[in-house]
Design a protein that fits this description.
This protein is an alpha/beta fold. It has one domain: Rossmann fold (3-Layer(aba) Sandwich). The chain contains ten helices and seven strands. It has a seven-stranded parallel β-sheet, sandwiched between helices. Strand 5, helix 5 and strand 6 form a beta-alpha-beta unit. Helix 1 packs parallel to helix 2, helix 3 runs parallel beside helix 4 and helix 4 runs parallel beside helix 5. The longest helix has 29 residues.
Length: 278
């Protein structure tokens, strides 16, 4: 019961990894806030979660609507404050993938994917982060991808966004780990979700079909169990994959010693020295 009594806010919670994460956390005794665009689907997940001591809040909004995201952050924090003092876990899971060659892809596809997969989680994190720092505790979880560790064909926009998400998370970790806020990067390989069906094609339309690799992947419940166990253990970079995808992830894994060395810069006064130079 590593997360019992805590409050977790999960985006993209209506299906796939997000829904499985919500159910697993609720089963562990956590309260959950479920966000996404499909209020009806979110309500169905909430009904599964609101059992025993766990409670659930459905908080739908469009992640790329910055004003709506800020309002949602205030509402989520107020709801969480009545249960555990504030949001304990923010899971930035909402995302959209791509299946198109760069030479064929319209620029608007890059704008959409980067807005959803990179800028939206940064915006939500920035809205929650100061309050987590004030309470000196919390976890921020970034659902990246193996495609965020190595450039994958037909995913130039997706890889760009997921690489960027890891870069933001790794840099953020150096700044806040000594303040009690943990940053977890999760890089899944193939998970049996609708990620491929919902992927954008070259003209921005929905692909509508899945990949064989996705269909052969982990079921979301198994993947989430691995993620949560690693989070409870304090693992900073969590790779959930097998076969060639696991090999890729391990080849590109950032060593813990490097995470420690970068975080040590802040505790050694790096920020203050930079301010003095300015």
């Amino acid at each position: 019961m590593a997360f019992a009594g805590e409050v977790a806010w999960i985006t993209g919670a209506s299906s796939g990894i997000g829904a499985a994460m919500a159910r697993a956390l609720a089963a562990d005794g956590a309260h959950v806030i479920l966000s996404g665009r499909n209020a009806e689907a979110l309500a169905a997940v909430a009904a599964d979660c609101a059992k025993g001591d766990a409670t659930a809040l459905v908080l739908p909004f469009e992640v790329t609507d910055h004003t709506a995201a800020l309002a949602a952050a205030d509402q989520a924090w107020d709801w969480a404050a009545a249960r555990s003092g504030g949001i304990d876990i923010l899971v930035n899971n909402a995302g959209i993938s791509q299946r198109s060659l760069a030479v064929d892809t319209d620029y608007t596809v890059y704008e959409r994917i980067i807005a959803v997969d990179l800028l939206a989680p940064i915006a939500l994190t920035q809205a929650v982060l100061p309050r987590m720092v004030t309470q000196s505790k919390g976890r921020i979880v970034m659902i990246s991808s193996i495609a965020g560790k190595v450039g994958a064909p037909m995913r130039t926009a997706y890889s760009a966004a997921k690489f960027g998400l890891i870069g933001y998370a790794d840099s953020l970790r150096t700044e806040v780990s000594h303040l009690g806020v943990q940053i977890h990067v999760i890089a899944p390989g193939s998970i049996r979700t609708d990620v491929s069906r919902n992927a954008l094609t070259a003209d921005g339309s929905r692909r509508g079909v899945t990949d064989k690799a996705i269909e052969r992947g982990f079921d979301p419940e198994t993947a989430v169990a691995t993620m949560l166990a690693a989070m409870a253990a304090g693992t900073r970079e969590i790779i959930v994959a097998r076969g060639f995808e696991l090999e890729i992830g391990e080849l590109r894994r950032t060593p813990d010693a490097l995470h420690d060395k970068m975080a040590a810069l802040i505790t050694a006064g790096y920020a203050a020295k930079m301010e003095d130079v300015a």
